[in-house]
């Protein structure tokens, strides 16, 4: 008891409360998440099921208890004639239970309390033991700056539709902000990909902590690059995914006339020349990959594009761009819009993406596949990586799909956050050491 009283003041500051709706997790009770063969695509549509991922080979899909038996019978019936095997894998037996478990520790986080020396030495890896509310994410960036005031500052890149500043952290060496070529890293474009915010913050924490500890590699990276990390580029969607619908992906743009569906896919809305093409995005406002009413129409893309353009036009210029997603364990580069036209520096990009995957695997054996987006996952148009590469002229333009390969998908247990941070930092270090 005595020791508790002595320790309590150090950890007294509580995490910011979440405003979760009463049925936040229970609306997913009994919902299964299944990996079904790609051959049942039309069936998934006819049941109106929510998709997590769609490939030629498989579709990851939510199946409510009320239609489960019918749906499985229909899959089996199709299977009777199919050439492809109709194996079905269970990702989540009860999504509601998985969501409760994922969020269980979210409010346990205790901010370090400032001493007379400020926060120096107090921000630690414990942040990476749980997922966090949006308010706590913003506080964490402030806490990082308070802990490492000589090498970090908070910045914003525009404002979301609902007025949330799109907030990031700028890391730099002894030359100060803006004195070296820029590296820009975005996370959680798709709201439900919570691990992306944590890994983006992990890059910031790892670089600052190692730089300050005198690690020669981290010192050389911060002396060579001006690094901008925005863990949550879709704050409206992220807050909605934490308070209303865990599986929300898009912005919260209101439905266009004639539709009742909210949201635009930020990663199909960039004003790259491919925005108008038929392949790699949807014109249906209800689709998860809806590209929006016009190229660059969303508030979020407007702010981010202006920021990237400014970086690209700065004296030091833009060196690397990375848009962090989950899941599938992939590390990819330009292009997304075409599978036939290679990027001008494709050989170099392929070598860097393969090197990232090998460096990451060296830590815990986690395997990532690598290559250009279009060949590695599927065609995407109006995407951020192609915009950063072609429009802003940033030569090293990448996108990871983080853990896992589908056992848990978007609802990745909190116990996998810290290992994801540590292994992905090894990949980032490979890039920073090997870009020309
Ligand atoms: C399976 O193939 C047979 C013979 O071609 C056809 O009559 C039947 O309708 C098919 N069943 C399904 C579910 O496609
Ligand atoms: C350097 O970063 C790694 C990866 O996050 C971390 O595990 C390690 O503790 C850091 N080292 C220091 C001295 O902070
Ligand atoms: C650089 O700035 C010029 C004008 O100031 C603008 O026309 C151009 O689009 C900018 N380039 C990028 C990559 O933003």
Automatic annotation (TrEMBL):
All copies of domain Peptidase M14, residue ranges: 130-435
Gene3D superfamilies, sorted: Zn peptidases
Localization annotation: Secreted
Signal sequence segment: 1-16
Gene Ontology biological process terms from the UniProt entry: proteolysis
GO molecular function, one term: zinc ion binding
Catalytic residue positions: 401
Superkingdom assignment: Eukaryota
Major subcellular location class: secreted
Keyword Cell division: no
Function of the protein: Extracellular metalloprotease that contributes to pathogenicity.
PANTHER family for this protein: PROTEASE FAMILY M14 CARBOXYPEPTIDASE A,B (PTHR11705), SLL0236 PROTEIN (PTHR11705:SF143)
Name of the featured protein: Carboxypeptidase M14A
Organism whose genome encodes this protein: Schizophyllum amplum
């Amino acid at each position: 008891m005595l020791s508790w009283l002595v320790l309590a003041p150090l950890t007294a500051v509580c995490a910011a409360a979440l405003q979760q709706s009463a049925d936040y997790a229970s609306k997913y009770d009994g919902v299964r998440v299944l990996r079904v063969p790609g051959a049942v695509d039309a069936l998934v549509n006819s049941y109106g099921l929510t998709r997590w991922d769609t490939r030629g080979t498989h579709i990851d899909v939510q199946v409510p208890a009320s239609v489960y038996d019918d749906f499985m019978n229909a899959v089996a019936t199709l299977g009777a004639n199919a050439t492809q095997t109709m194996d079905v894998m269970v990702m989540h037996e009860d999504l509601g239970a998985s969501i409760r478990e994922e969020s269980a520790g979210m409010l346990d986080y205790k901010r370090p309390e400032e001493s007379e020396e400020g926060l120096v030495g107090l921000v630690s890896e414990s942040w990476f033991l749980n997922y966090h509310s949006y308010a706590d994410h913003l506080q964490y960036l402030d806490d990082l700056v308070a802990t490492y005031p000589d090498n970090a500052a908070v910045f914003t890149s525009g404002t979301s539709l609902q007025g949330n500043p799109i907030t990031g952290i700028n890391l730099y060496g002894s030359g100060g902000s803006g004195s070296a070529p820029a590296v820009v890293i975005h996370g959680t474009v798709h709201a439900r990909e919570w691990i992306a915010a944590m890994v983006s913050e992990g890059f910031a924490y790892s670089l600052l902590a190692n730089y300050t500890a005198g690690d020669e590699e981290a010192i050389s990276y911060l002396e060579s690059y001006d690094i901008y990390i925005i863990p949550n580029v879709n704050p409206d969607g992220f807050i909605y995914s934490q308070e209303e619908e865990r599986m929300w992906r898009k912005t919260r743009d209101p439905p266009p006339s004639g539709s009742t569906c909210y949201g635009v896919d930020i990663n199909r809305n960039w004003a790259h020349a491919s925005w108008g093409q038929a392949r790699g995005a949807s014109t249906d406002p209800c689709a998860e990959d809806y590209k929006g009413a016009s190229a660059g129409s969303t508030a979020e893309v407007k702010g981010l594009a202006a920021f990237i353009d400014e970086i690209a036009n700065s004296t030091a210029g833009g060196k690397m761009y990375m848009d962090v997603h989950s899941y599938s364990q992939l590390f990819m580069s330009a292009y997304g819009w075409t599978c036939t036209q290679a990027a001008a520096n494709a050989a170099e990009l392929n070598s860097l993406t393969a090197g990232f995957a090998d460096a990451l695997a060296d830590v815990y054996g986690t395997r990532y596949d690598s290559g250009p987006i279009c060949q590695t996952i599927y065609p995407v148009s109006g995407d951020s990586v192609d915009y950063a590469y072609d429009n802003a002229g940033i030569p090293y333009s990448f996108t990871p799909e983080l853990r896992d390969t589908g056992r848990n998908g978007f609802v990745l247990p909190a116990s996998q956050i810290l290992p994801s941070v540590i292994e992905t930092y090894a990949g980032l270090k490979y890039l920073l050491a090997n870009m020309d």
